[in-house]
């Protein structure tokens, strides 16, 4: 009972912080820069526990945060010059060249896990800037719209809630027993239906009330489906990662909810998939 209360309080605080973070462009960038840094730091700490792996946690974390901020600066219109990415590229080059002199047991693994920290965490999180900041036709000015990035997380939370409830009531067929025995097809379908209903309502409301929305009702339903499918895959990817390392939780930063990867695993696939979906709609329109 005590653990349930702690989990509920921690979860409620998390939602408040996340929603509050989307209220202004500066708070969103600051919040997700922090999230990126904490998640990369956690990831590199976990892989460094593997035999023969020694990833530079500090430089990898700094590189991930810098990349996030560089993408934010470009999307916010602070700069359109690609030169802002150069320090990040130099950092990555350094991380490769440094292995020549460190005489580590398995430099290939070090390189692989270092780059994975950037591709698996820093790159997906940086795409939240693409969802939140819409560039004008001149490619310089922009405006901030919290609706899309916030809704991606709302869809993820609703999917988790719907999947848990419908899975508890009707779950009989395992979705992916080799990696996540607790997930069922019934739960996933129930979560998906709930998300698409809410997405349709958001699409109807935004289009009927003159809100800033680049999506039709059907477009919003499609976005909800994308978030559900890729969010589920993101959860499974992190489950496979933890099984490979032989751990239950990625960390203890959130009481009752585990670590940063445990909390943001679904978003690491859902955010970039949402960006691809939106750009695909633009190309087809």
Automatic annotation (TrEMBL):
Intracellular or extracellular location(s): Cell membrane
Catalytic activity: a 1,2-diacyl-sn-glycero-3-phosphate + CTP + H(+) = a CDP-1,2-diacyl-sn-glycerol + diphosphate
TM spans (from-to): 58-76, 82-102, 111-132, 144-166, 187-206, 212-233
Keyword Glycoprotein: no
Keyword Ligase applies: no
Pfam families (alphabetical): CTP_transf_1
Record GO biological process: CDP-diacylglycerol biosynthetic process
Gene Ontology annotations for the cellular component aspect, listed alphabetically: plasma membrane
Keywords, comma-separated and alphabetical: Cell membrane, Lipid biosynthesis, Lipid metabolism, Membrane, Nucleotidyltransferase, Phospholipid biosynthesis, Phospholipid metabolism, Transferase, Transmembrane, Transmembrane helix
EC number: 2.7.7.41
Enzyme class: transferase
Pathway: Lipid metabolism; Phospholipid metabolism; CDP-diacylglycerol biosynthesis; CDP-diacylglycerol from sn-glycerol 3-phosphate: step 3/3
GO molecular function annotation: phosphatidate cytidylyltransferase activity
Main location: membrane
Similarity comment text for this entry: Belongs to the CDS family.
PANTHER family associated with the record: PHOSPHATIDATE CYTIDYLYLTRANSFERASE (PTHR46382)
Name under which the protein is recorded: Phosphatidate cytidylyltransferase
Organism name: Segatella oris C735
């Amino acid at each position: 009972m005590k653990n349930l209360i702690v989990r509920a309080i921690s979860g409620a605080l998390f939602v408040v912080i996340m929603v509050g973070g989307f209220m202004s462009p500066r708070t969103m960038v600051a919040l997700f820069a922090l999230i990126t840094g904490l998640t990369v730091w956690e990831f590199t700490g976990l892989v460094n526990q593997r035999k023969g792996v020694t990833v530079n946690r500090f430089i990898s974390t700094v590189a991930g945060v810098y990349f996030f901020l560089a993408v934010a600066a470009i999307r916010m219109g602070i700069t359109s010059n690609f030169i802002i990415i150069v320090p990040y590229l130099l950092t990555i080059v350094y991380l490769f060249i440094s292995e020549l002199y460190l005489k580590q047991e398995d430099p290939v693994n070090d390189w692989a896990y270092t780059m994975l920290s950037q591709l698996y965490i820093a790159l997906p999180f940086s795409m939240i800037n693409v969802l939140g900041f819409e560039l004008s036709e001149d490619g310089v000015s922009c405006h901030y719209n919290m609706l899309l990035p916030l809704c991606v997380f709302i869809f993820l939370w609703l999917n988790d809630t719907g999947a848990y409830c419908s899975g508890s009531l009707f779950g009989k067929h395992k979705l992916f027993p080799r990696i996540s025995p607790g997930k069922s097809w019934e739960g996933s379908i129930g979560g998906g239906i709930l998300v698409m209903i809410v997405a349709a309502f958001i699409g109807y409301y935004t289009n009927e009330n003159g809100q800033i929305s680049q999506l039709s009702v059907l477009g919003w339903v499609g976005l909800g489906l994308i978030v559900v499918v890729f969010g589920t895959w993101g959860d499974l990817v992190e489950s496979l990662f933890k099984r490979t390392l032989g751990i239950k939780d990625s960390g203890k930063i959130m009481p009752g909810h585990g670590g940063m990867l445990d909390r943001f695993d679904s978003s690491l696939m859902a955010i970039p998939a949402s960006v691809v979906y939106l750009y695909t709609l633009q190309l087809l329109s």
